[in-house]
Amino acid sequence: MASSLTCAGVIWAFLSFLCAAASCVGFFMPYWLLGSQLEKSVSFGTFRRCSYPVRDENLQTTVMVEQCGRYASFQAIPSAEWRICTVVTGLGCGLLLLVALTALMGCCVSELISRTVGRVAGGIQFLGGKWSCGEGMGVSR
Prior knowledge:
- The protein is an alpha+beta fold and about 140 residues long.
- The protein has helices at about 5-30, 80-105, 115-130; strands at about 35, 40-45, 50-55, 60-70.
- The chain has one domain (about 5-110).
- It contains 3 helices and 4 strands.
- The chain is elongated, with a radius of gyration of 20 Å.
- One of its GO terms (cellular component) is membrane.
């Protein structure tokens, strides 16, 4: 198995993959904000939520749905800021995963990653990391 990476490059590739995986798992989990509502534990992330209130028209009251799921549509995400955060964080995670998988392929294929490609990939990772943390494009959490 030929490699186009140095020992440091191989370590970078595996750490990149672990960081990208952690970012993606964090993006998909609905545990960004935890709290309680109507005496029930609730949590939500950018596009997933657990235990949310729903208006029951038959009983004319608000009841808690105790299950996790995505919002019904992109417009159902509670605010414009959270919609922007969903897009930016998703793009950041996608960039991180793309670079990490390319770096892992560089462990197996010779001449795949040159010094210039490695530097560009590092820059893309930096942008992806900034975006997946919500710090890019003026979005704050």
